[in-house]
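Second attempt. The first submission of RagB/SusD family nutrient uptake outer membrane protein had a stray character pasted in from the spreadsheet, which I only caught after the job came back as garbage. Lesson logged: always re-copy from the clean sequence file. Corrected sequence (521 aa) follows.
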Amino acid sequence: MKRNNIYAILGAFLVLSSCSKKFTDKPSLDATTLSNYYNTAEEVRGLTSTLYGLPWSGYENRAMDAIGDVMAGNEYTGGNDDPPFLNFSMASTSVRIADAWNVFYKIGGWTSEYMKALEQKKAMGGNATFIDPGIAECHFFRGTVYLFIGRIWGDAPIITDPGKAALSGNFNIPRYFQKDVLRFALEELQLAEAGLPETDPQPGRVTKYSAKGMMAKLYLYLKDYDNAKAKALEVMNSNQYELVADYAGMFNSSSLNNNKEALFSIQHQLTSNPWGSGNQKNPDRGPSNLQTDEASMWQLYLPSMDILSAYEFGDLRRKGSVMEQGWTKPDWKPKNANAAYNTFMANGYKYDTIQKEGDGGIKNGTRSNIAKYVVGPGKTYGGETVLGMNTGINTMILRYADILLIYAEAVMGSASSTSETTALAAFNKVRARAGLTAKTSITKDELLRERRVEFAFEGDYWFDIQRQGYAKAKQMIEAQNRGTADAATKVTFAEKYMYLPIPAGEILQDPELAKDPVSYY
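This time the job returned cleanly.
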């Protein structure tokens, strides 16, 4: 971990929120001390609110696409920083890898210092009834980021006292075995499960069931099917979550933020100075012919030819996820200085690959654009408020659909197929929303395909491929078409790409990271 990051963490718990109306409001720079703060539930929740939004931006913006979907074969991309994830030539100097690393260790460090401060306050006589849930909230975030760390880098550092490391000047922190990193993540989530409430009056706050759901995901990754099934079932039996009927609506408007399907979301809001606080997927995914003076659009990431071939005929998720020839959005009425364009878009936005470019047409490499998290051309043009690159839509990290599919796969376990009744019921709920017919039995490959299209462009499919093991991952990746509509492209996959390299800058400052991993426990 970089020295300047550690020192930033040291001061993080002094940067608190005293009177936020929304729990994602940016913290104020108060001269906070343990003796005069954390005396109310609002003050403690103001502290933990800082974990929900801004710290995630470096991963959520682009690294999440590059790692979760470009590398997985769901997205095609150009530019300078992302093509290595398409053709597996990633280097330790990658900007995306460094960004992801900095985000996860920053959040891990913040939570460690927050927990220390809250424990000290409790020892001074602070009220445990609201301090303990705050500590549990920190455990949830620390467990979640170490789940990401263990899946992305495999063997990696575990840092629980960054302040002590900074003050000691000892930055010789080793890598620990992946099994220990994931065990640490699990233990953190178990502490979160024990300390979080079953419900929270503030939409978007994590609860006991958020922790159970994340544990189910971790257990599935570990192939601990019994525990994955048990935790998923606890979430299902809570009757607190449902599938949102409008699949597309979850991803094209902030009006469905913190919906009944969301177990954990990165929280966003727009301000007059939105840098880092808004969702920035709109410009990276939106088609260039949708750009206006309110909304930037440069389509850095496109649906891959391979993901387009993965959808079954009639799957309603396709239109909710992908813009293709004939895709329309009547409410969006973008305008620019071109009269022909304005005439073409007069009755609403049309995605057209035949119309002349500039006059409303668009013709990119895969003849398609991503629809998820594209909220449109701006309020003046029939969409919701967009401030340049920024929108107010949350990014969902864990949805109830995932719980249902985790349960189905956990029931299947190590078998290649299942026709077990409860597994089919969970699986077919997801298919029913997509407008597809129910299955009477499901294979492992069918389940993986269902996960692929359900969570397309949500940064998750790489981890589904990875957890199959090297031989199956190689087979899946080398079968993909990673090219364009004009030229199909195949790649060769090597085992060294199962996990990403540790950023070169981190190894320069901590040479221990270049050595073999050791045991943490």
